[in-house]
Design a protein that fits this description.
It is a single chain. The chain is built from 5 helices and no strands. It is an all-alpha fold.
Length: about 170
Amino acid sequence: MSDTVGEVLAAELRETMATERARKSSIEAKGLSVVTTCGAFLTFLFGFATFVGVREGVERSGLVLALVSAGVVLLAAACLLGILCSLPGLYHEIETESLRTMASPDVWEEDGTEARRELALARILQASDWHRRNTIKARVLLVAIALEALGVIAVGFDVIVLALRW
């Protein structure tokens, strides 16, 4: 016996939602990774700035200050975007009240075709919402990673400039 369109759609929607849930978890975990690594880089940067600041005879040029400032701003911005990525957000879910009406005694014994169709439509809206929100979060994550990389580059150039002056 072949599957009905409804059965095929239900299976596809289950797979789509599982994929979007996994994608959401992955993006949120990567956002937290950006926060963690930016925090580590900022800690290093402040320690390095303190160490360099107490060295006698080392002149701090405008370039050094600009690179340090750029590094701090870029890493802090990346950290904030990482936090945004890791926020759970208000993802669309099927309301339990609508499911409760299906469990009422007068509806319970009815044919389930219409209920499956309505649930499929609700799952389609849910999957669409989750995909849209995950795509936005993924783009924010890419910007966060790019800012983090630029911040690390700025700090790296700062270290090189200071090393050449010693």
